[in-house]
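W.,

You were right to be curious about this one. When I first looked at the sequence I had no strong expectations either way, so I just let the prediction run and decided to look at it fresh. Below is the sequence, 461 residues in total, followed by the output.
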Amino acid sequence: MNQKILFVDDEPALKLYRQTLQGQFDVATAVSGEGGLSLLFNHGPFAVVISGMQMAGMDGVEFLRRARQVAPNTIRLLLTGHVDLNGAVNAVNEGGIFRLLLKPCEPSVLAEAITTALACFHERKEERVRIELPVDLDRPARGLKLQPAHTVDISNSGARLAGLEEPLELGEVLAIECGNRRAPFRVIWTGAPGTAKEGQAGLECLTADADIWKMNLRQLENGESLMRARAVQRGLLPQEQPLLKTLDYAGHCIQARMVGGDYYDFLDLGPGEVGFVLADVSGKGIAAALLMASLQGSLRSQCGIGSKDLPRLLRSLNLHFCKHTARDRYVTLFFGGYCDATRTLHYVNCGHNPPVLLRKGGAVERLNATTTVLGLFSDWKCSVAETQLETGDVLCIYTDGVTETGGRNEEEFGEARLLETLRKSRDLEAAQILWNVENVTQQFRVGEQADDLTLVIARAR
């Protein structure tokens, strides 16, 4: 059960509460919003996020707004010395604040608020199910009744709607009818024009036990099994990162479906050596997810030989896939073994999108394929390439879900926009560079996410 707490505030406030909280909860701390976002990326998931209002770089509302985008399932608390009505409304709307606490706040009061937030987190079961269900909207404040719409995804605490005849207003309270169930909801966000969420709206349910989707979730074939599969698959992604002195790195995957076929990993290859893996399994859904799990298991069981003999490791993987998977199933994969002492990356690119290496001076290198995909050919050979990473260089390893993200007029996001975003973000920490790429990609997208989107960013220091 997730009991992890992230507390972001200035050092005096952290010092005041740290001893009390660390005796009761599993607490990670940061003294800035940027540091907090880095922890969310690299050390999550967290159940509760607490922020002070006045911090270097960004205020508490801005941090919690961004934390909500990065980790929407967290319960968020804001500590502030003073807040007016407009400030409170802004905090709730922008950051999705669960509770506002005024400073000075007694440690016992803060501990009680965290305990309540943890209980809410575990009761809410915020796993979202992507499904289109017809609904009717009753908008009494506008004098409008039973406007048709449909869900994009649903959870026990809310829904995302599309197909709206008229735009909804932020903060508006309305009723949703689905089948023979009805419950009040509040509009917590609306999609901005020109973004991927244009014409959509996010709503939270105002009645905790309403559960108007219960009937429909039970009708989903293998719905519970899919949610369990997703939880298991998330557990296969890296839960910790081996430390490197010369490289700051981060990874993240946004799945297009309940389960997906993208995979990334950070393998401990020994002192000062890390294996960076990013793979894209052909197909989608359960079949791709099973192949992804098989890939992860095979790599982890054999990673000890990775830094010494990459060809041997990958030949073994290829043979395994050829023997145990359907002929139309294959994997594109990038494996790079990085050595801290020499700052050298030895890599094999198995038919994957060439990662881009943005040099400090502005030049771009592409780590092109050194062999073909895994799983299609039993007679398989590879060559190993290498490159050096110098201070200020930024390496971006990605799946085609990034560059093939569709915008207006069927235009794709493309490598040029990816490089532009990397250039603008190159002086930031790896986790923030990654977040910026994801954010720009999501803003560019029009319509639903069609493919898994996975990134690994490494910045030499």
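Here's what jumped out at me. The chain has three domains: 4-124, 129-219, 228-460. And, maybe more interesting for your project: Residues 160 and 452 are 19 Å apart (CA to CA).

Coffee later to discuss?

I.
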